[in-house]
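Work Package 4 report. The design task specified in the project plan requires that, given a folded chain encoded as C-alpha cells, an amino acid be chosen for each position. We show below one input record used in the internal validation round.
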C-alpha cells in the first residue's frame, strides 16, 4: 500500500502521509490540510471517520468483535485478572508484579478518606437527585479539597492525583447510593481488597455485621473490568478534550461522568432495564417493541442494541450474558426480565432491520440484570459504569498529558447569515 493519500481540490493535487498503527489501521494525516489548501478543512458529524489521537491503551476491532487492553484480550482479563490489576495495566501499560500491585493498593488506601466537608455538598442534594449528577458534582468538588491534583506537570504529581481519585471515587459512589437510601455515610475497611471494600461501603447496614459474598465480589470485579476502557468513546473523548486545556484530573473526570450519563452512552444500562420492565408490564409483548424500534416515526430505540464501532457482537456483551446466567443462578434469583432480554435478543438477531444495520447487543444490554440481582438500584447502574470506566479515563488522560497533545479545538463550516448592517430597534 502507498504511504501517501492524494487529494485533488480545484485541479490542485495535495499529498498527505498515511500512518499505519500496530494493528494495521491506516489513517490519513491531515495536520497540514488547512495550510496547504488555503483553508479547506473536513467535516465528520459524530467523528464517525475521524481519529482524534494515536493511543497505545485499548484496541478494538468492531467488525471482528475484538477488544484488548494494552494487548491483552478482554476474555483473558475478565477471567484471570482482578480489577485493580487491570486498572494498573491500563494506566501504566504493564500487568503489575505482586510488589507493584501491593504498593499501588497501599498508596490508594492512604487516600481513601474524603474530606468530611464533602458531606455538606452531598447533603444539599435532594434524595430525588440522579446519582450521576451528584457524582459529577462531588468529583469536581474534590479539586477544592485536593488542589495539588490540578497542576500535574510531573509524573509524581500525576501519580499522586491518580491514587487520590482511585481511593476517593469508590467512597463517593457508596455515599451517593447511601444518601438516596437514607443510610449513614460510612467507610469500608483498609484490610479488604479494592472491590470487596466497594461492596462493603455500598451495602453495609448500620445495625448488623456485613457478610462478604464471594459471588458478588467476583461478579462486580468482572463487570468493572469489562467497563474499564473502550478507546475514544464519547465520555473518554470528553475527558481527553477537557484535560487538553490542562484542566485538572478531577475536573476532566467530572466532565466524563456527565457525558457518560446520556442514554445513548452509559445511561443505556438504566434505560435497558426500564425498557425491559416496560415490556414486562406490557405483558411481555416483545414484538410490539421491535416494531416501535423499527418505526422511524417512533423515537423509541431498542436500548442496549447497536454500537458506533461494533458491527458484530460486543465481546463484553457475550461475557456479561454468560455471567448473568451464572450470577443469578448462584444467587438463586429468578428474574423474568432475563428471559425477556434473551427473547428480544433472539428476535432482533433474526430480524432483517437489525441484521442489515448490524445492530447487536452491546455492553449495556445485560449488565443491568446483574446489577439488579446484586441489589443495586437502577438509578445507580450508570454510576457503576463510571466506577468501572474510571481507570480507563485516567489512563487516557495521562497518555494525552504525557504525549503533550495540543488543546482540542475542532473547526467548523459556518452556515449562518453573511454580514449585515445593524438595525436599531425602531427599524426591526
Ligand atoms: C456505550 O462508543 C463506545 O465505545 C460506547 C461504549 C463504551 O464502552 O464506552 O461501548 C458504551 O455507549 C454502548 C452504547 C449504549 N447505547 C445504547 O444502547 C443506546 C441504543 N443504541 C443507539 O442509540 C445507537 O446504536 C448508538 C448510539 C449506540 C450508535 O449510534 P450510531 O453509531 O450513531 O448509529 P446510528 O444512530 O447512525 O444508527 C444507524 C442506523 C439508524 O437507522 P437508519 O437511519 O440507517 O435507518 O441504525 C438504527 C438507526 O435508527 N439504530 C437503531 C438502534 N441503533 C441504531 N434502531 C433501533 N434501535 C437501536 N438501538
Amino acid at each position: 500500500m502507498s504511504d501517501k493519500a492524494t487529494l485533488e481540490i480545484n485541479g490542485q493535487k495535495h499529498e498527505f502521509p498515511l500512518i499505519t498503527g500496530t494493528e494495521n489501521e491506516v489513517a490519513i494525516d491531515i495536520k497540514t490540510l488547512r495550510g496547504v489548501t488555503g483553508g479547506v478543512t473536513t467535516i465528520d458529524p459524530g467523528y464517525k471517520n475521524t481519529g482524534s489521537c494515536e493511543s497505545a491503551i485499548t484496541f478494538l476491532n468492531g467488525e471482528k468483535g475484538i477488544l484488548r487492553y494494552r494487548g491483552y484480550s478482554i476474555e483473558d482479563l475478565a477471567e484471570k485478572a482482578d480489577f485493580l490489576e487491570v486498572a494498573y495495566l491500563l494506566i501504566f501499560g504493564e500487568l503489575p508484579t505482586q510488589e507493584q500491585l501491593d504498593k499501588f493498593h497501599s498508596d490508594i488506601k492512604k487516600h481513601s478518606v474524603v474530606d468530611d466537608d464533602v458531606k455538606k455538598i452531598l447533603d444539599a442534594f435532594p434524595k430525588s437527585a440522579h446519582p450521576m449528577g451528584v457524582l459529577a458534582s462531588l468529583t469536581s468538588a474534590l479539586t477544592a479539597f485536593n488542589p495539588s491534583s490540578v497542576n500535574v506537570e510531573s509524573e509524581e504529581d500525576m501519580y499522586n492525583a491518580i491514587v487520590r481519585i482511585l481511593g476517593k471515587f469508590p467512597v463517593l459512589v457508596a455515599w451517593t447510593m447511601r444518601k438516596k437510601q437514607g443510610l449513614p455515610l460510612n467507610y469500608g475497611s483498609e484490610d479488604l481488597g479494592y472491590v470487596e471494600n466497594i461492596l462493603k461501603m455500598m451495602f453495609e447496614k448500620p445495625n448488623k455485621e456485613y457478610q462478604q459474598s464471594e459471588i458478588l465480589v467476583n461478579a462486580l470485579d468482572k463487570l468493572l473490568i469489562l467497563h474499564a476502557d473502550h478507546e475514544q468513546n464519547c465520555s473518554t473523548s470528553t475527558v481527553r478534550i477537557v484535560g487538553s486545556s490542562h484542566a485538572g484530573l478531577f475536573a476532566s473526570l467530572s466532565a466524563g461522568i456527565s457525558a457518560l450519563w446520556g442514554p445513548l452512552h452509559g445511561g443505556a444500562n438504566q434505560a435497558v432495564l426500564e425498557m425491559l420492565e416496560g415490556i414486562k408490564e406490557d405483558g411481555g409483548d416483545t414484538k410490539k417493541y421491535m416494531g416501535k424500534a423499527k418505526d422511524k416515526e417512533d423515537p423509541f430505540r431498542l436500548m442496549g442494541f447497536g454500537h458506533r464501532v461494533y458491527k458484530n457482537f460486543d465481546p463484553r456483551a457475550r461475557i456479561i450474558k454468560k455471567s448473568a446466567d451464572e450470577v443469578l443462578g448462584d444467587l438463586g434469583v429468578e428474574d423474568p426480565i432475563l428471559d425477556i432480554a434473551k427473547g428480544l435478543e433472539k428476535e432482533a438477531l433474526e430480524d432483517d432491520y437489525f441484521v442489515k444495520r448490524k445492530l447487536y447487543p452491546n455492553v449495556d444490554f445485560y449488565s443491568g440484570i446483574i446489577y439488579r440481582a446484586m441489589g443495586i438500584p437502577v438509578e445507580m447502574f450508570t454510576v457503576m459504569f463510571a466506577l468501572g470506566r474510571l481507570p480507563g479515563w485516567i489512563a487516557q488522560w495521562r497518555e494525552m498529558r504525557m504525549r503533550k497533545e495540543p488543546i482540542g479545538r475542532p473547526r467548523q463550516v459556518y452556515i449562518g447569515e453573511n454580514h449585515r448592517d445593524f438595525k436599531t430597534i425602531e427599524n426591526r
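The mean pLDDT is 96. Validation will be extended to a larger panel in the next phase.
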